[in-house]
């Protein structure tokens, strides 16, 4: 909701003034000539626009930056009084034009109050409501902008936490294999170069093609399979209908890493990992299941990687994802569904 508000804020404000202008012009046209009612409305809208713009864009912004509420309240009151006075002077100005025959006598002016002070007091509530409304909208916009900036900073921080973790893990695998199997280490290094290339070039993008993210996950899985050899059964299913769909990068990898990290590796039994990735239309789903043992328990929700991923999902897909984690003594399963754009 806030994203839509920020996106269409200026359009909304511009539309408001246009609608207000047309509404007042139509209303005033029933009491005066078309030309007089047009000029009368134009003067009213111009003065109101200048007053509301100054109050919301200058006074309010200064208050938010310098946190001087007393100065804002004082300025707000002064602008309210000035706006009420200017609107009354416009009425008096058109009254003078009618008296001097420039415009014909109309009901538009005759229905106003007879004394300047009473007219001034009667105009203050309207000025107050107009300025308060625009200040409220501006405050909401500034708050939404600050919240968006904070979320973007948090997202970058969380993303940077994930990438080095993956890099160090793979480098450690290569170091171990260099002492045991040069050919396997060479193959692992090639896979790692693809992973590193993806991380370097896609890390700063807000969105990437789904096919690139899936390819990245496949490379990571192949690296892990090379590392563990025949110690694990790894079964993967890939059903991607449209690889050109967009997804936020590195939001899936933590679930894969945690599966390989916590899978059971008992001498008496062979651990397994099942991964199913599907995309059909706007719906993307991922299921990651791995065997685990009571001897190596894991808290529901996983470690830091899954916690950070949960935060990223809440930021990028606040109302467009479902994450369910199910754990027993022997099975750990993650089900994730994302509504893609």
Give an overview in words.
By secondary structure, the chain is an alpha+beta fold. Helix content is 65%, strand content 14%. The chain is built from ten helices and seven strands. The protein has helices at 2-7, 9-29, 34-66, 69-99, 107-110, 116-178, 182-202, 210-228, 253-262, 304-316, and strands spanning 208-209, 232-240, 246-247, 271-280, 283-291, 321-327, 331-339. It has a five-stranded mixed beta sheet with strand order 2-4-5-7-6, with helices on one face. A two-stranded antiparallel ribbon has the order 1-3. Helix 6 runs antiparallel to helix 7 (182-202) and helix 7 (182-202) packs antiparallel against helix 8 (210-228). The longest helix is centred in the middle third of the chain and has 63 residues, at 116-178.
Helix content: 55-70%
Uncertain segments of ≥5 residues (pLDDT<50)? 296-301
The portion of residues forming beta strands comes to: 5-15%
Q: Report how far apart the termini are.
A: 16 Å
Within the largest sheet, what's the order of strands? 2-4-5-7-6
**Number of helices, counting only DSSP H or I runs of 4 residues or more:** 10
Radius of gyration: 32 Å
Largest sheet composition:
5 strands, mixed
Overall body shape: rod-shaped
Topology order in helix (H) and strand (E) letters: HHHHHHHEHEEHEEHEE
Number of strands: 7
**Mean pLDDT across residues:** 81
Computed structural class: alpha+beta
């Amino acid at each position: 909701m806030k994203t839509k508000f920020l996106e269409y804020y200026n359009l909304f404000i511009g539309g408001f003034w246009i609608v207000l202008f047309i509404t007042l012009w139509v209303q005033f046209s029933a009491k005066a000539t078309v030309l007089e009612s047009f000029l009368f409305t134009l003067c009213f809208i111009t003065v109101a626009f200048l007053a509301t713009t100054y109050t919301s864009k200058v006074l309010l912004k200064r208050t938010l930056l310098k946190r001087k509420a007393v100065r804002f309240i004082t300025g707000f009151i002064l602008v309210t009084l000035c706006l009420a006075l200017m609107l009354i002077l416009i009425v008096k100005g058109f009254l003078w034009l009618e008296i001097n025959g420039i415009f014909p006598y109309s009901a538009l002016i005759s229905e106003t109050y007879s004394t300047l002070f009473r007219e001034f007091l009667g105009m203050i509530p309207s000025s107050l409501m107009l300025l308060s409304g625009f200040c409220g909208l501006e405050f909401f916009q500034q708050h939404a902008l600050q919240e968006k900036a904070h979320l973007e900073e948090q997202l970058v921080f969380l993303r940077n936490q994930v990438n080095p973790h993956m890099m160090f893990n793979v480098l450690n695998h290569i170091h171990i294999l260099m002492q045991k199997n040069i050919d396997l280490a060479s193959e692992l290094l090639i896979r790692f170069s693809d992973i590193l290339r993806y991380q370097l070039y896609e890390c700063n993008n807000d969105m990437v093609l789904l096919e690139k993210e899936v390819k990245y996950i496949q490379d990571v899985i192949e690296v892990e399979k090379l590392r563990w050899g025949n110690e694990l059964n790894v079964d993967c299913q890939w059903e991607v209908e449209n690889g050109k769909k967009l997804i936020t990068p590195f939001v899936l990898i933590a679930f894969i890493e945690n599966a390989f990290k916590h899978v059971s590796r008992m001498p008496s039994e062979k651990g397994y990992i099942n991964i199913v990735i599907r995309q059909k239309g706007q719906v993307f789903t991922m299921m990651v299941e791995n065997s685990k043992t009571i001897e190596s328990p894991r808290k529901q929700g996983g470690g830091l990687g899954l916690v950070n991923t949960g935060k990223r999902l809440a930021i990028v897909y606040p109302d467009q994802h479902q994450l369910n984690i199910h754990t027993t003594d022997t099975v750990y399963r993650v089900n994730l569904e994302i509504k893609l754009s």
